[in-house]
Design brief:
203 residues; mainly beta; Immunoglobulin-like; 2 domains; 5-stranded mixed sheet; 4-stranded antiparallel sheet; rod-shaped; cell adhesion; Ig-like_fold
Length: 203
């Protein structure tokens, strides 16, 4: 009579590590485990969702003379901004599930229209006031690091790292329609609505 005992995985190797963030698009992932028994299965999972790929069509399996198996699975993952902050797992099914996390931060540009407030501002010449540019609801990862202001006549104002545009002291020549854009190093949001600033001169 002979007995066969399971040999559990000592180390799951995944590549590439995604802890530094990734851009949207196709990413080639691999996951491997060496000398385990019985032959395991590998599948891929993101967040709490069910398996998104079982790896069976891309698995490379080696059987060793001692009866153990080494297996490597490849997966082409389509990174999307909707997956931001979700963990991506390589899971080995052998005497229970053994998980290895590849990473969770997915980088992307801001999506949608920036928001400007207030949309209407009336101020006296020589006074001080501000309008603000807020990123869209999907603000981007990393968060916007620059803001651009544009006048209705097509003139672009200086880029700034602050969402605030301060008029101090206000001049009647600054009576314009203003628009803003928020962005990070991956791209920019859609332009905001137009804000109407009126600077009243002295009579």
């Amino acid at each position: 009579m002979s007995f066969s005992f399971p040999v559990r995985p000592q180390n799951i190797v995944v590549s590439p590590r995604l802890n530094e963030g990734v851009k949207e698009g196709t990413i080639n992932l691999t996951c491997s485990v060496q000398q385990v028994k019985p032959q395991p299965k590998i599948y891929w999972q993101i967040g709490d969702e069910g398996p998104m790929h079982n790896g069976s069509d891309t698995d490379s399996v080696t059987k060793h003379p001692n009866g153990t198996f080494s297996i490597q699975s490849s997966y082409q993952w389509q990174a999307k901004h909707e997956d931001d902050s979700k963990s991506l797992y390589c899971i080995i099914t052998l005497d229970g599930d053994h998980k290895e996390v590849l990473g969770k931060e997915k980088t992307h540009k801001p999506y949608g229209q920036a928001e400007i407030s207030p949309l209407t501002l009336e101020m006296a010449e020589g006074s001080t006031d501000s309008i603000y540019c807020a990123p869209p609801s999907v603000q981007g990862n990393p968060a916007p690091s620059w803001f651009v202001w544009r006048l209705q006549n097509g003139t672009f104002l200086k880029n700034t790292t602050s969402p605030e545009l301060k008029l101090s002291p206000a001049n009647v020549n600054e009576s314009y329609l203003y628009q803003c854009i928020a962005g990070n190093y991956l791209g920019e949001s859609d332009a905001s609505e137009w804000a109407n600033i009126t600077v009243l001169g002295e009579f």
